[in-house]
Amino acid sequence: MNTVERLVEYGIKPSVQRIAIMEYLMTHRTHPTADEVYMALCDSMPTLSKTTVYNTLKLFVDQQAALMLTINDKNVHFDGDTSLHSHFFCRKCGRVFDLPFSGKKREARELQIEGHAVEEIHHYYKGICKECSEKESLV
Amino acid sequence: MNTVERLVEYGIKPSVQRIAIMEYLMTHRTHPTADEVYMALCDSMPTLSKTTVYNTLKLFVDQQAALMLTINDKNVHFDGDTSLHSHFFCRKCGRVFDLPFSGKKREARELQIEGHAVEEIHHYYKGICKECSEKESLV
DNA sequence: AAACAATATTGTAATCATTACAAATGTGCA
DNA sequence: TGCACATTTGTAATGATTACAATATTGTTT
User: Fold this and answer.
1) Within this chain, do residues A75 and A104 fall inside the same structural domain, yes or no?
2) Which of B81, B103, B131 is where one domain is finished?
């Protein structure tokens, strides 16, 4: 499925900017912040506005075409992969890594927990990533 | 265990402000924001500064005497209950609810996942809480 | 193809939670 | 008592995000 099809599938009218931002999310599985998306695209799209990036990412999240990760208190990360999976946040380098979903399979199908209507499941881990751990042990 | 003992246990020198803030966290399991803690205490402690609340909560988190919940992108919530449990965030009323830990028991003991050093486990759910769901269905 | 309405994008100016910082205060000990 | 150190305080930044109004784009109707 290409980018335009994906947008349409989620009820999003494709535009040059929306295609570029979704394209970036799909090809860069780095869980970028809005600012990182803007910085990556503004060279090839000099007229791109940061507001558009924010608006567009918000639209994607509202339409469930992307996930908003509030894993870091400094800024929000976005994930174009909406399949059920977990995350690891490194407090040293600030990167977000994907992990296979760590919960019980049953849980993923539950629409209610203790009477609350569940719309999103977020499982994440914080610590020091493999690379940063290895660097640290060299010191 | 009383509040002062708890602070000392976590290597935190007790002060009037620290005791009051920890006391508040222990007796109000509402996962308050820094501002909510400040608002709740400033009447009985007129000289309390918001900076102190922020500093103190950060100290608690650093010393692992409290948890920082980045469950909401608007502001950070704090939890005085550091035992392993999950959370539910209601996107309607903004409240945070406790849930029993939803993960696998084994997982809680793992210090590494795919080579990353795990320091914190965060499992949370987003949606509409029981109370808000019931209110909505009356309309 | 012009005219129009609806939608999307842009730039700038707020907002507001959080932090930096330096002055003031409090605490413990020689 | 006085001095070193830790803590608290108030104010002024910071910086991510949003509000808003102007501009541009798109699709539709004649």
Assistant:
1) no
2) B81
- Residue B71 shares a structural domain with residue B102: no
Residues in chain A within 8 Å Cβ distance of B102: 103-104, 107, 113
- Report the predicted TM-score, pTM, of the whole model to 2 decimal places: 0.95
Collect all residues of chain B within an 8 Å Cβ-Cβ radius of residue A88.
113-114, 116, 118
CB of A55 under 7 A from strand C? yes
Half-sphere exposure of B2 (CA within 13 A, CB side): 4
- Enter the tokens of residue B3: 């509040």
Q: How far is B70 from chain A (nearest CA, A)?
A: 6
Best probe of the A interface among B126, B133, B134, by most A CBs < 10 A, is B126
* Section A101-111 average pLDDT: 85
Q: What is the pLDDT of residues A51-77, one digit of tens each?
A: 999 999 999 999 999 999 999 999 999
- Exposed, middle or buried by CB within 10 Å (0-12, 13-18, 19+), for B36? middle
- The arithmetic mean of pLDDT across residues A40-61, rounded, is 98
pLDDT tens digits for range B43-82:
999 999 999 999 999 999 999 999 999 999 999 999 999 9
The range of the structural domain enclosing residue B32 comes to: 1-81
The last residue of one of the domains, among B59, B81, B103, is B81
CATH number (domain holding residue B68):
1.10.10.10
The separation between CA A55 and the C-alpha centre of its own chain, rounded to angstroms, equals 15
Total number of domains in chain B:
2
CA distance linking residue B16 with residue A104, whole number of Å: 44
Region B15-42: mean pLDDT is 98
User: Which single residue is written with the structure tokens 């994930």?
Assistant: A79
- Same domain for A58 and A123? no
